């Protein structure tokens, strides 16, 4: 009798441990193993797909991984959704192995308008966009290792390395200028753009290497075409500080 009670207790502990493991897996990312587990317990494809679309996914989908999923009985319908869920919608940027978040430049601050007015437009009025704060939270080396993984329809030509103008409370980029001598220009001024060499790493992944060692200061990987003045957006980019 005593042995049966002990055995029952052990079985209960094993079942509870298994349930706890399943619960922990359900609280985390949806992985290949989680999809295989849901398939093996008999969940319908539509339920698994709903889980994938509503959860945070972390899939491994190399050719060998796809074969393993097929052997485990995961349907091609579910695998297709896994592939779709793994497509990037926002560019992923890492510099010196540090993940960089994209930031939106604030409303433009104009400079030189008084000078332009006094000289009847001979001197130029400059339009500048800015980020709050004198420095980025990300500190990198003067020879940074820059990695970009782009969404499917994006191109590396849309990304340029720009040196920002430091101020006491912000960092600025000149985005336009107007004057009789210079006419009307829009875009980042040439002097601020740092020369780089891009190398394809396959799968829409690239390394971006500055041609010269970067001087200490404030920088941004600026996204060309991200300015939309109608919406009050003066560009987006990935900022960092070189020290």
Secondary structure blueprint with pairings:
Blueprint: H1 2-27, H2 32-40, H3 45-54, H4 63-71, H5 76-85, E1 92-95, E2 98-100, E3 103-104, E4 106-111, H6 113-118, E5 125-132, E6 139-140, E7 146-149, E8 159-163, E9 165-166, E10 170-179, E11 183-186, E12 193-194, E13 196-202, E14 205-210, E15 217-223, E16 227-228, E17 233-234, E18 236-242
Helix pairs in contact: 3-5
Summarize the structure.
This protein has 243 residues and is an alpha+beta fold. It has helices spanning 2-27, 32-40, 45-54, 63-71, 76-85, 113-118; strands at 92-95, 98-100, 103-104, 106-111, 125-132, 139-140, 146-149, 159-163, 165-166, 170-179, 183-186, 193-194, 196-202, 205-210, 217-223, 227-228, 233-234, 236-242. Strand 9 and strand 10 (170-179) form a beta hairpin.
